[in-house]
Amino acid sequence: MDFIEIFGYISALLIGMSLGLIGGGGSILAVPVLAYLFSIEEKAATAYSLFIVGSSALFGGIRQHYKGYVNWKTAIVFGFPAIVGVSVVRKFLVPVLPDVLFTIEDFEFTRRMGMFGLFAVLMIPAAFSMLKVTKQEKLDKPKKVKYNYLILILSEGFIVGVITGLIGAGGGFLIIPALVILANLEMKVAVATSLIIIAVKSLIGFFLGDAFTMDIDWQFLIIFTLLSFIGIFIGSYLSNFLNGEKLKKGFGYFIIVMAIFIFYMEFFVNV
User: Fold this and answer.
1) Residue-wise pLDDT tens digits, 69-99
2) Do the beta carbons of residue 59 and residue 201 sit within 8 Å?
């Protein structure tokens, strides 16, 4: 095992720690870690990320369920079209994408550029969602959910599923605002419910679209995921002593740097 691989496994631990410390965001680093530190090609990197993201979100979502924050009705309404979106993309679209999507004179726009370029672009709003200052809310009795625009919720669920299928990230930065605005959920309930939605659509998308169509290195994937789980416990413990809001802001800036790095690597170095 060389230094790069060791650093990759340490990164798996750090992904979990970020989830434990600030409640999200770490999973978005799974794809770049898999692609650049373990040299895993884009289809497998996004597939592995779905498993890692889904497993981590499921772990967090179950914890939130026992705290009484998950709104299961909304999770089902939003989650079903998301599952359809991610499953269709992973099973039917990703396998048929050509290596070169299109050419402009001598420039070839590859499948890898398309998937990682979209990933880098979507990391920016994810980062800004972390830079926003959030107020802690005290929850009273759960409110009855009243949907403002049911068709919009179903449509956004499908779109989020498609995006998740393409880039292998959970899309919490898209789901949470939708749940707050369209389903009138309090922020803590929206965050907790989004974890369940991310977990179900990511894991079902992985098993329906990838587990039976590509060779999966299960030993590597399980070790990486278990390390992220250990990181969650470490992060949860450290969160008792560290300022979560400051850490969240710092991580937001780090994601912006990573987005720029991915864009540079794919469009200027790996061409």
Assistant:
1) 899 999 999 999 999 999 999 989 998 999 9
2) no
Q: What is the C-alpha to C-alpha distance for residues 195 and 176, in angstroms, rounded to an integer?
A: 9
Write the secondary structure of 14-63 as one string of H (helix), E (strand) and C (coil). HHHHHHHHHCCCHHHHHHHHHHHHCCCCHHHHHHHHHHHHHHHHHHHHHH
- CB-based burial label for 211 (10 Å; 0-12, 13-18, 19+): middle
Q: Is residue 23 within 8 Å of residue 247, measured between CB atoms?
A: no
User: Which amino acid is located at 172 in the chain?
Assistant: G
Q: Which two tokens stand for residue 265?
A: 């690597």
Q: How deeply is 126 buried, as exposed, middle or buried, from its count of CB atoms within 10 A (0-12, 13-18, 19+)?
A: buried
Q: Which two tokens stand for residue 177?
A: 């605002």
| Burial call 218-245: b when 16+ CB within 10 Å, e when fewer | eebbeebbebbbebbebbbeebeeeeee
Tokens of 236: 């949860």
Would you give the end-to-end CA distance of the chain in angstroms? 28
Return the domain boundaries, the chain.
3-269
Q: For residues 75 and 193, what is the distance between their CA atoms, to the nearest angstrom?
A: 6
Tens digits of residue pLDDT in 115-148: 999 989 988 988 888 787 655 555 555 556 666 6
Instruction: Find tokens 């994937």 and name the residue.
Output: 221
Residue appearing with tokens 């309930």: 189
Comparing C-alpha atoms, which of 266, 203, 235 is closest to residue 49? 203
pLDDT at 178: 83
What's the full length of the chain, in residues? 271
